[in-house]
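Protein record
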Amino acid sequence: MRVQNIKLSLMIAAILALMLFVTMRETHLPFSASAKGHSEPSAVTFNKDIAPIIFKNCASCHRPGEVAPFSLLNYRDTAKRAGQIAAVTKSRYMPPWKAEPGYGEFHDERRLTDEQIALIQRWAGSGAVEGDPKDLPPMPQFTEGWQLGTPDLVLKMPHAFTIKAEGPDIYQCFVIPLNLPEDKYISAFEFRPGNRRVVHHSLLFLDSSGAARKKDEADPEIGFRSFGGPGFLPTGTLGGWAPGAFPHYLPAGIVKIIKSGSDLVIQNHYHPSGKVETDQSTIGIYFSKTPPQKLARAIPLIRFDLDIPPGEKLYKTLVSFTTPIDLQAIGITPHMHLLGREMKITAFLPGGAVQPLIWIKDWDFNWQGQYLYARPVRLPKGTRLEMEAYYDNSPDNPRNPNTPPKRVRWGEQTTDEMALCGVQVVAENQEELPQLRLAIAQQLRPRLRANGASGTFLEDWIKQRQQ
């Protein structure tokens, strides 16, 4: 009798299990993630889910001949680095986009969404499955020539520069005479690195004082070495380039000016590749085809009186500027050195509204750049621009150039610091530009004098910053 009861119990259990199986099938509940012939509806694959993310946000650098150390254009190359990709995207170390979401909308944003990061995590954690070849999107196409068409003026570094196989990163400036007989208005520029394996980023300055030429002549190398700023007072700037960035025309009617007699100074950041390399980069200039309506100017938010004690983990500096006229911001360029940890620029509008302009929560000197707004940001008269910056001069800062930490002040050298942000603006009424120049001069004079500047240098510095 006992044996019969056991058999009956087993039979009932089998029937219940069968009924549960059928019920789950009919209600589409996932009864087994590994059952043969059936996969989870939400299974993540390279071809369907990951390739679109990689192609859009990573391939501009991670392809043959570019600055990234390996290519990610196919499944095999990507899958063998799945764990690494999951780690660097989760920490947002990659893609290299430092601006925080919600603090300005910019051209060429490479920021991944939380959903995209989660997809990469699931893909790497579930075995980095390739998926159906039919799901693979078309391979991204990259234009090898001039992105904006043939430039009006093409400039090239006068000589090729050699980068050693090993050693620290190099910040080298190169002077190119423009020989322009008259002032020129430009609407765009395009930087083309001669060797994308080693050119990390580039900043373009203008100099009509001859100071850059003198530094070039005094340096036995091709060009001259300068970390941080270019080592002289620029009379203007064109902007910058970093991998993944694309050239853009300024908004319609807005131009920058290049004064006659100016030299172009290229500051290239080189990263050794493990073998001896050479670079001879090229710049294309696009002149305005229509009469200029508005000139782009820069508002410098700047503090010269930095005095960061050794061991100070959270040194704060603050500076503000109130706009005397109606303006529109078209771009922004934060700048600090190795101790910099965070910079936030906010616009407090006269009506009480708050307009975030940019926030870099995790500053990295190696990934600085110029950010162009997707749409101009209106700054009515009376808007207060505020720059808030923080520095870490403690032993806990892995980028601290001094061991043990030393007192750090403002300066151009590697071990110095800066607190600077240039806000590129245009005046809604060009006739009011003198009011803007006067307001900037009134703000800068006491700060420059406190920093030891006076006389002709002071007036020249203020004038040059407005070009």
